[in-house]
């Protein structure tokens, strides 16, 4: 039998003959053995051993003391300790274990009994070492993951700051028009985005859009759209306001020309409002229908055709309406589909019910109330944007 791969065994015994008997027996079974006489100056020879056999025959007290000193030194790498005793009394056996031995062997014993104990303890040692290696590898992997997560977190923070810089810090202040907005991405960054801006002394442009998905990929699309929206053409001292249908047509063509490997689905509604006469034009690309809340009368959806952006070359029909003083118009993203209010079905029915209840409020309070009503239970599974405008007297 050869156990050459089992590692070095250290034998500690009070007498040379005991030490040599144990040594011959173990070497005959292929084990590498080193000896130490109990009572001689202690050295570091037990460092690196895979098993310690401590024979306390004839010197029980000194052997137990050595066992108690050895145990802490063997803990870091877990080295099993076998105590051999010539006192088989229960209290003596208990003393072996309390001093730090993992097991004991009482004299007299047959050689096979010792070899079986040694083999079993070395198997335990081997299992422990394998588990220790796996644990160490897990710690290394966890450290690398933590570093990766930290880098991702930093990149998300940067993406969040970049995306936030593309959102309007304030909404236009113009005569006879008020805006209200509620914007809440599902994660650090999202696919919803909006903007509102003065175009000249009479007109305000605005849009709400939703890029497919969440997180960084969706946020990158929002940046592309932000840069791709062309609302005004300037030629010398003259300019032309680009109508909503043309804005979406050009943006759609730009997306298609990018030839991205994955189709970047985007929904969007773009509006152009004349705050002098109350005329509003809009075009939509697969986006939820705008909700008109008149000062008097039933809230209604302004339904208009329009395909998603980035799919195929298409036209986006233009719709023209007139807002009267006191009328509100709400643009929103499909996060509203999960909204629930007042025992209504999820989505538009709940939105209509909440809009009816709060229609008399100023537009910012109106939008805030909608957000609280529709997501009172905290169920937000998607990005959410509500952009409202109100024509004032």
Instruction: Quickly count the domains.
Output: 2
- State the total count of DSSP E strands: 17
Main sheet summary: 5 strands, parallel
What kind of assembly state do the chains in view correspond to?
A: single chain
CATH class of the largest domain: Alpha Beta
Short description:
With 393 residues, the chain is of the alpha+beta class. 37% of the residues lie in helices and 24% in strands. The relative contact order is 0.09.
Overall description:
The chain has two domains: 4-134, 3-Layer(aba) Sandwich (Rossmann fold); 167-391, Phosphatase 2c, domain 1, CATH 3.60.40. 37% of the residues lie in helices and 24% in strands. It has helices spanning 16-28, 60-74, 90-98, 111-166, 215-228, 244-257, 348-358, 363-374; strands at residues 8-13, 32-37, 51-55, 81-85, 103-106, 177-184, 192-198, 203-211, 232-235, 238-241, 266-274, 279-285, 291-293, 300-301, 319-322, 328-332, 384-391. Strands 2-1-3-4-5 form a five-stranded parallel sheet, with helices on both faces. Helix 3 links the parallel strand 4 and strand 5 (103-106). The chain starts with 7 loop residues before the first strand and ends with a strand.
């Amino acid at each position: 039998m050869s156990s050459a791969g089992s590692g070095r065994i250290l034998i500690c015994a009070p007498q040379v003959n005991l030490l040599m008997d144990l040594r011959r027996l173990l070497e005959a079974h292929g084990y590498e053995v080193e000896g130490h006489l109990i009572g001689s100056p202690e050295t570091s020879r037990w460092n690196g051993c895979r098993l310690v056999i401590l024979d306390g025959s004839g010197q029980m007290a000194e052997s137990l003391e050595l066992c108690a000193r050895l145990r802490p030194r063997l803990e870091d790498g877990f080295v099993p300790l076998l105590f051999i005793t010539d006192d088989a009394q229960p209290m003596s056996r208990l003393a072996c274990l309390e001093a730090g031995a993992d097991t004991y062997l009482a004299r007299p014993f047959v050689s096979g009994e010792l070899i079986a104990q040694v083999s079993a303890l070395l198997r335990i040692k081997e299992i422990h070492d394998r588990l220790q290696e796996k644990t160490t590898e897990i710690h290394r992997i966890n450290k690398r993951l933590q570093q990766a997560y930290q880098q991702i977190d930093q990149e998300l923070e940067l993406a969040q700051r970049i995306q936030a810089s593309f959102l309007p810090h304030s909404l236009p202040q113009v005569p006879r028009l008020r805006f209200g907005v509620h914007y809440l991405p599902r994660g650090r960054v999202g696919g919803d985005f909006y903007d509102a801006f003065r175009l000249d002394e009479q007109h305000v442009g605005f849009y709400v859009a939703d890029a497919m998905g969440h997180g960084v990929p969706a946020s990158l699309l929002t940046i592309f759209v932000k840069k791709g929206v062309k609302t005004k053409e300037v030629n010398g001292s003259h300019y032309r306001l680009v109508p909503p249908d043309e804005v979406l047509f050009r943006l759609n063509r730009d997306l298609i020309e990018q030839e991205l490997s994955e189709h970047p689905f985007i929904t969007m509604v773009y509006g152009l409002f004349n705050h002098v006469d109350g005329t509003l034009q809009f075009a939509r690309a697969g986006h939820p229908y705008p909700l008109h809340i008149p000062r008097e009368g039933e809230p209604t959806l302004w339904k208009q055709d329009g395909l998603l952006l980035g799919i195929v070359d298409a036209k986006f029909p233009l719709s023209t309406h007139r807002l009267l003083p006191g009328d509100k118009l709400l643009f929103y993203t499909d996060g509203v589909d999960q909204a629930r209010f007042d025992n209504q079905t999820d989505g538009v029915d709940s939105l209509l019910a909440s809009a009816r209840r709060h229609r008399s409020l100023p537009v910012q309070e109106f939008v805030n109330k909608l957000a609280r009503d529709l997501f009172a239970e905290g169920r937000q599974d998607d990005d959410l944007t509500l952009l409202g405008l109100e024509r004032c007297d």
